[in-house]
Automatic annotation (TrEMBL):
Positions with a binding annotation for orotate: S130
Signal sequence coordinates: none
InterPro entries, per database record: OPRT (IPR023031), Or_phspho_trans_dom (IPR004467), PRTase-like (IPR029057), PRTase_dom (IPR000836)
Domain Phosphoribosyltransferase: from-to ranges: 58-156
Function (record text): Catalyzes the transfer of a ribosyl phosphate group from 5-phosphoribose 1-diphosphate to orotate, leading to the formation of orotidine monophosphate (OMP).
Cofactor(s) required for function per UniProt: Mg(2+)
Catalysed conversion reaction: orotidine 5'-phosphate + diphosphate = orotate + 5-phospho-alpha-D-ribose 1-diphosphate
Binding site for 5-phospho-alpha-D-ribose 1-diphosphate: R100, K104, H106, E126, D127, L128, I129, S130, T131, G132, N133, S134
Enzyme Commission number(s) from the entry: 2.4.2.10
Gene transcribed to yield this protein: pyrE
Alphabetized UniProt keyword annotations: Glycosyltransferase, Magnesium, Pyrimidine biosynthesis, Transferase
Protein name: Orotate phosphoribosyltransferase
Gene Ontology terms for molecular function: magnesium ion binding; orotate phosphoribosyltransferase activity
Length: 214
């Protein structure tokens, strides 16, 4: 679910402007999962554009408080959401922790890095939601550490049905600054893509794991 429509449209436009989101229906990308995709999203680029990262920080900060109430801690999911998560925590005057994909094999063998007390209310910040699996693994690590997870806030989601089901099973609310639907609507309105390319992009989103360019 998006925080609000105005933010979703503005965020989508900014991501397209800086090529954080690339649309290439005719020559698809290959994801780490092996899926073929006409879209690639790299929200790490946001950190290189001060005005845009400040916009994302501010939208996260006000909407997190509005939707979840002010938490005790902000947690970022490594590695993509560490930078923006820390900016949000700074803006809200809150402690920050981040969650590794898995526990370290040496030293203190932490998976959650930073100071976190049992029972603290945490909002998790993520950069991108596809299936939601890696994001929810971070949530489970935080819960195992005793955190009370109020919800997750992400920059962008592809809106896959499998992600919605995964978050429902995890009993976790997800809100995003923008999503695939708003992105496509804006891309058409601003002539980033043709109607034919829009059709391809919409077809992909129905069954992304089985899609391939024709």
């Amino acid at each position: 679910m998006i925080f609000n429509k105005d933010t979703a449209e503005k965020t989508a436009e900014l991501l397209l402007q800086i090529n954080a989101i690339k649309l290439n229906p005719g020559n698809p990308f290959t994801w780490a999962s092996g899926w073929k995709s006409p879209i690639y999203c790299d929200n790490r680029l946001i950190l290189s554009f001060p005005a845009i990262r400040n916009y994302v920080r501010d939208e996260f900060s006000k909407n997190i408080e509005k939707q979840f109430g002010k938490p005790d801690v902000i947690a970022g999911v490594a590695t993509g959401a560490i930078g923006i998560g820390m900016l949000v925590a700074e803006s809200l005057g809150l402690p920050f922790v981040y969650v590794r994909p898995e526990a370290k094999k040496h030293g203190r063998q932490n998976q959650v890095e930073g100071f976190l007390q049992k029972g603290q209310n945490v909002v998790v910040v993520e950069d991108l939601i596809s299936t939601g699996n890696s994001s929810l693994m971070a949530v489970e690590a935080l819960r195992a550490a005793g955190a009370n997870i109020k919800g997750m806030a992400a920059i962008f989601t592809y809106g896959f049905d499998v992600a919605e089901q995964n978050f429902k099973k995890a009993n976790l609310d997800l809100y995003t600054l923008s999503n695939y639907q708003n992105l496509l609507n804006l891309a058409v309105a601003k002539n980033y893509i043709t109607e034919k390319e829009e059709s391809t992009l919409r077809e992909w989103s129905v069954n992304p794991s089985a899609w391939d360019v024709i």
